[in-house]
User: Fold these one by one.
Assistant:
Number 1:
Amino acid sequence: MMRSLPTLILVLLSALTLGCPEGEVAQAPVPPPLPPPPALQANPPAQSGDPAPQPSESPSEPAAPEASPAP
């Protein structure tokens, strides 16, 4: 198991370096902002894509209706 991990990392690294130059390789690890979106989307789904629909629903407090849906 311990030998498989380093081997996999080496293979991935070699594949990255062979596929694109150093400049591009440095940019590859930059797109990690994909995993965090789930948490952000769970709260403000409208703000992430369309910030216009949110204000339309509640022009006073957009977080109030979500926090307390009591009439």
Number 2:
Amino acid sequence: MDEETNVESTSSLCNLINLSAGQSPLSNGETTPLKFHPFEPFSTCSWREIGISPWLIKQLEEFNLRKPTPVQTNCIPKILEGSDVLGCAKTGTGKTLAFALPILQQLAIDPFGIFALILTPTRELALQIGDQFAAFGRQLKLQSCVVIGGRHQMAQAQELSRRPHVLIATPGRLADHIESDPSGIARLLKTIRFLVLDEADRMLDGQYATQLKVIFDALPTKRQTLLFSATLTSALNRLHEVSVRKPYFFEEKDTIKTVDKLEQRFVLCPRNVKDAYLVYVVKEFYLRRDDTSILVFAKTCRECQALALMFKQLGFEVGSLHSEILQSVRAASLAKFRAGRIQVLICTDVASRGLDIPHVDLVVNHNVPRCPKAYVHRVGRSARAGRFGAAVSFVTQYDVVLLKAIEGAIGKKMDELKVNHKEVALYAGKVLATKREAEIRLERRGFGERREIWKRKELAMEGLEEDEIERRIEAWKSGPARRRREEEAGETNGTAGDWNKRLKTARNSRNSDLAKEE
């Protein structure tokens, strides 16, 4: 996409979310640079000093929340003043309360429904936000409604008809409701005072454009718009630059940095036996104590489910969290992990952002993320709220460049985690055979059929002929399968000695780079 198209796209986006896109007031046509609002690492303000009402302060103290965080200190007063806000701060810094508290405080003055709409990209995050509104809004007898996929649409429509004060939704399901009942559901949204986009960088990256247009067209133009994100992307940056009605902008410094109390290591291993190394590391950590908690990130839904089946077959109590399983199963896995009933949760990036999982001792990256920001979001699940934590990434001979990019972004060099290769070799055969059995079981179950149904529906809505739909479905299905075949073929080439030579070359290359930097 060229620069001109980018500008047009962002301008349209501004118009949709009511930030009034247009030419910057500078006479030379340049855009106004972002104005950064500095903050202290630890807020010295009290809740009362930033305008929070006594009844809310009492509830905050019941949850042992004595002082606001920087994002709350900077954004809450501006929201209470009536300003639009764009806030960027690291995961775990209290962004949800930064918009929930002023919304509840304003709702207490003039309660009516639907007062606020909060849009978020994932179901789990929507449920979590709903829980926080319920907890802090109980004195108001708050009525809230969570509208997400995986639940009965008719029951949700009935809840919406009762006009809850706060509506938390994922874009796809809410757009479905509006399109199925434009005169009913859409009319209920005309009263909202607040629109919140949580994880705004993901919401505005283009994948939800169609659904967001349906939703925004149903909203009133007179409202406050609040955008919160863990990272400042080019889309958000451009959005601020072309907005005539400038939102208050706050960005926490070093949003791409990892916390100091997080110990970060990597394991260098051949790709064809990576799963054996994964089991070794998880087992070693798993046996340290009974209450340890381990979050394993996998690249795809299929890989996530295959790893979960493999670990279960090997005797581990694990749960899985990805978009290809039922919502009830996803919720149950997350609840068990939070409660400590299972010690290992295997997930995709659906769990890397926003979700409040209080205690994660170890984050494991089964694959090295291609984007350093994705790495930061993943490992940010550990070492939260001042606790110590650890992260381990499995690096193959093909991932050394990705590791260097991550180290450059976070400003830290990671140490290699030494493992007992002989011990790994003892059960590598069993692990790899179990993993292959898991993959065969997924094939027999027709894993991924739900996604194919959604894809067909999406193509049909574009008005394509049946033959064209079939052609595109086949192309869509053959891509991942072809990549898997190529990877499997690549892994069979070369002897064990060849693999050791390649790893030695990768290690020497990394050591050479470190020596040059010193």
